[in-house]
TrEMBL record:
It comes from the Bacteria. This is Aldehyde dehydrogenase. The lineage of its organism: Bacteria, Bacteria division WOR-3. Residues 17-478 form the Aldehyde dehydrogenase domain. It comes from candidate division WOR-3 bacterium. Keywords: Oxidoreductase. Pfam families: Aldedh.
Length: 497
């Protein structure tokens, strides 16, 4: 078992508080993965001051040079992919195939940043006046607070940290308390790759102490957060009041529509992967299956049959298909939603139970769960559960399917299975979600495309792709007048020159 420390200004330091917390394996709660500092406001202060100082140099390192360092970090991640994936499975439970994918998403993001250093395009425009030229370019903001969740312990911090650093910002990173070890490894790799001291600092601890201290600090230029809508609202409130930037990726209640002309086998693989992959703990998870009447009975039977064969267990075994939930509190939440669903009059069609057989007796396992007879107004059809619970809703046609899909306060991901190209485009235009997949599940975002949602899912920013770089930069507008005389915009005309 390893004892970890914060990394501030390139040095490993204990928390001033000397307090610690344990990180346990959700597949076997007897296994302690590591012990981490439970940091305080004072630790955060130290990290912010280090980041503030480092910013003065880092912002002037040419972007292509910053990019080379980030590219090197991605290369180290490629070498260590298997070790990182195994550690991640031990600390958060998802199966090896998925943790390898998580690391790969971090690698992809690092390589993308490596290329972006030689682009970071601004715009050049003509002027209304003669002998005058105008252009824009990107400037960093300063010190960013990065607050990340446990479900993608490397991918999500990478989405935030790589673009923040590439554009010349520095960072104080507070990872989720359930996945501190993966976060620590990422920060170590960045240092090994050559990120200077103080540019990335990691402070472990709770949202209440470390998160709040970051949020309220006057030297923080912005907060990038992925997590619950409740915490997102709090962050938006404080940053709003202080006129600080914040980028929020919040909940989802994603639906998959299956029409009568769909390839049902394909749609089946999609919904099983979307609903039960990562034990349903993705903000992009498929938590609603919207079926048209014509295929309802047939498809439902297929889903139940396949769900009943899902191999539950320790994610380190290659044959396992679904690992545990992250912790006891999450399992209680999932189970309480099952009770809520039953209470609302939905029919529990499969699962709905804690799973403790064999090696699963010491982990937070839960059976894949399917509710049928779900009506759109029920809580299990509207609220994010973050577990392997699928609510099935029957509709008569495509229009009703879209109406039901949109009937939630969230709008992250969505999916439609049909072979009819006309109906696919019709749906794409009407679905209220940041991401729509056609003949693919609601999960599977790629790092070079914008990622984010509408409505309560966020505040309009898009991580991933070129849009991530907009989050972390200010646009500087430059006018250069080489006429040698005073030219007054809107007042002088170009003919007078
Ligand atoms: C998340 O669920 O928080 O598309 C991110 C996907 C992943 C990213 C998910 N590439 O499911």
């Amino acid at each position: 078992m390893t004892e970890y420390k914060n990394i501030i200004n390139g040095k490993e330091v204990e928390s001033i508080s000397k307090r610690r917390f344990e990180n346990r394996n959700p597949a076997n709660w007897e296994e302690v993965v590591g012990i981490f500092p439970k940091s305080t406001r004072e630790d955060v202060e130290e990290a912010i001051q280090a980041a503030k100082k480092a910013y003065q140099k880092w912002r002037f390192v040419p972007a292509p040079k910053r990019a080379e360092i980030l590219r090197k970090a991605a290369e180290i991640m490629i070498e260590r992919k298997e070790d990182l994936a195994r550690l991640m499975t031990r600390e958060m439970g998802k199966i090896l195939k998925e943790t390898r994918g998580d690391v790969q998403e971090g690698i992809d993001t690092g390589l993308y940043a490596g290329g972006e250093g030689r682009r970071l395009f601004g715009r050049t425009t003509p002027s209304e006046l003669n002998n005058k030229i105008c252009y824009t370019y990107h400037q960093p903001l300063g010190v960013w607070g990065i607050i990340s969740p446990w479900n993608f312990p490397i991918a999500i911090p990478s989405w935030k940290i790589f673009p923040a650093l590439l554009t010349g910002n520095t960072v104080v990173f507070k990872p989720a308390t359930d996945t501190p070890a993966s976060a620590y490894e990422l920060v170590k790799i960045l240092h090994e790759a050559g990120v200077p001291d103080g540019v990335v600092n990691i402070v472990f601890g709770s949202g209440r102490e470390v998160g709040e201290a970051l949020l309220e600090h006057p030297d923080i230029a912005g907060i990038s957060f992925t997590g619950s809508s409740e915490v997102g609202r709090r962050i938006a409130e404080v940053t709003g009041k202080n006129l600080k930037r914040c980028s929020l990726e919040l909940g989802g209640k994603n639906g998959q529509i299956v029409l009568e002309d769909a390839d049902l086998k394909l749609a089946l693989e999609g919904v099983i992967w979307g609903a039960f992959g990562t034990t349903g703990q993705r903000c992009t998870a498929t938590s609603r299956l919207i079926l048209v009447e014509a295929v309802y009975d047939e498809f439902l039977a297929m889903v139940k049959e396949r769900a009943s064969r899902i191999i539950i267990g320790n994610g380190l075994r290659e044959e396992t298909e679904m690992g545990p939930l992250i912790n006891e509190a999450q399992r209680n939440t999932v189970h309480s939603y099952v009770e809520i669903g039953k209470g609302e009059g939905a029919e529990l069609y499969y699962g709905g139970e804690i799973y403790q057989e064999g090696e699963c007796s010491k982990g937070w396992f839960y059976k894949p769960t399917i509710f049928i007879g779900v009506r759109p107004e029920m809580r299990i059809a509207r609220e994010e559960i973050f577990g392997p619970v699928l609510s099935v809703i029957k509709v008569k046609d495509l229009d009703e399917a879209i109406e039901v899909l949109n009937n939630t306060s969230y709008g992250l991901s969505s999916s439609i299975y049909t072979r009819d190209v006309n109906r696919a485009f019709y749906a794409i235009e009407r679905i209220e979600a940041g991401i729509t997949y056609v003949n693919a599940p609601t999960i599977g975002a790629e790092c070079h495309l914008p990622f984010g949602g509408v409505k309560d899912t966020g505040n309009g920013h898009r991580e991933g792709g070129w849009t991530a770089y907009e989050i972390f930069t200010e646009t500087k507008t430059v006018y250069i007048d080489y006429s040698g005389s005073l030219q007054k915009a809107q007042i002088d005309t170009w003919e007078e020159q």
